[in-house]
Design goal:
Helices cover about 50% and strands about 10% of the residues. It has about 350 residues and is of the alpha/beta class. It has an 8-stranded mixed beta sheet with strand order 3-2-1-4-5-8-9-10, sandwiched between helices. Strands 6-7 form a two-stranded antiparallel ribbon. α8 (about 180-205) packs across α13 (about 280-295). The radius of gyration is 19 Å and the shape is globular. The structure holds nicotinamide-adenine-dinucleotide and SN-glycerol-3-phosphate.
Length: about 350
């Protein structure tokens, strides 16, 4: 059992903190709003993010960052990707030297195109070798109900990954280790782009054939970019790749899917993000991925069309026509070598 700090009391941070506390770890959840701290400590609920859910009674919340961090052997960052760098900067002065740093954010920093573990390594250089990415198919709404879930903890340091595995794993939350940090992080980030596109296409009344095509060709372009960046191809057929793609693209729990669906109804992106009231990582990740695909010279037609719809006001139906009428090609033309 460890002393654990969780930063970010949104849906996922609250669900993960509850799992950690239930597993017997002394767990403190950092929330910025005092009202959230009081609600969690008094009623063991977080109604805004996880309506009707009961949290582990031993979970303690606090709005005092230094108090939450100082004694922690494991620090888990669960803030939106664009807030990770700033949060890491605030945390650095209070970290114990050997703490394991876990993050569960799925995105890319839009300003730098960096993955989350790269951002953490830059901001927490003393802990750069102890960083772990937690990812995989995991809707907070299901984890808090103790529905069976399997995730991955990826790290260059297998000892750090095993510490995270032991803290989180229990009878309904199964945790696998992996050393392919690039593949796991890119799988988690890029599936949100495909989920947005799937929500959009479902709203345009695509049938099952079209959705299956979108997921399959989406996975192909996710793997192509990941491979170009140094990921192992097989990671994309694991939990962090196809696993999370299925969960996110087929579930009404997914904020990314729902955001895409709302856009198909003619709503503007800004309005959708306000209505959602929670982070929709796929939006910024589409922006970052569009540029990264050009940088790595990787063809990503679904991402490219989605970018045009989100940021250049392209009509979704025109985007679909353009996607379907590209040049003829072989299905495995651009598949990455080593895919099994
Ligand atoms: N919700 C899920 O089921 C789920 C599952 C797996 C991974 N994730 C990932 O976890 C990350 C967080 O998602 P979420 O669902 O918890 O989001 P959320 O919108 O439910 O909550 C985000 C939380 O972060 C806090 N926050 C926002 N900006 C902050 C800042 N600058 N400093 C500190 N705290 C800040 C907010 O107050 C809020 O408590 C995302 O990257 C998401 O992709 C979510
Ligand atoms: O609700 P979403 O779309 O952010 O997805 C949540 C998780 O990443 C699913 O694994």
């Amino acid at each position: 059992m460890k002393n654990v700090a969780v930063l970010g009391a949104g849906s996922w941070g609250t669900a993960l903190a509850s799992v950690l506390a239930e597993n017997g770890n002394e767990t403190r959840l950092y929330a910025r709003r005092l009202s959230a701290v009081q609600e969690i400590n008094t009623y063991h609920t977080n109604e805004h993010y996880l309506p009707k859910a009961s949290l582990a009674p031993s979970l303690q919340a606090s709005a005092n960052l230094s108090e939450v961090i100082r004694r922690s052997d494991v620090v888990v960052f669960v803030v939106p990707s664009q807030a990770l760098r700033e949060t890491a900067r605030q945390v650095r002065p209070y970290l114990k030297p050997n703490s394991v740093i876990v993050h569960a954010s799925k995105g890319l920093e839009v300003r730098t195109f960096k993955r989350m573990s790269q951002v953490l390594a830059e901001e927490l250089p003393e802990h750069a070798n102890q960083i772990v990415a937690l990812t995989g198919p995991s809707h907070a709404e299901e984890v808090i109900q103790k529905l069976p879930t399997a995730v991955v903890v990826a790290s260059k340091d297998s000892h750090a990954a095993e510490i995270a595995q032991s803290c989180f794993m229990n009878s309904y939350f199964r945790v696998y280790t992996n050393t392919d940090v690039i593949g796991c992080e890119m799988g988690g980030a890029l599936k949100n782009v495909i989920a947005l596109a799937t929500g959009l296409c479902s709203g345009m009344e695509f049938g099952d054939n079209g959705i299956a095509a979108l997921l399959t060709r989406g996975l192909a372009e996710m793997a192509r970019l990941g491979f170009a960046m140094g990921a192992q191809p097989n990671t994309f057929v694991g939990l962090a790749g196809v696993g999370d793609l299925i969960a996110t693209c087929t579930s009404p729990h997914s904020r990314n899917w729902r955001a895409g669906n709302m856009i198909s109804q003619g709503k503007k992106l800004d309005q959708v993000l306000v209505e959602m009231g929670m982070v929709v990582e796929g939006v910024k990740t589409t922006e970052a991925t569009y540029t990264m695909a050009k940088h790595y010279q990787v063809e990503m037609p679904i991402t490219e069309q989605l970018y045009q719809v989100l940021f250049a006001d392209k009509c979704p139906r025109k985007a679909l026509t353009d996607l379907m009428s590209r040049d003829k090609t072989h299905e495995l033309q651009d598949y990455v070598q080593g895919w099994s």
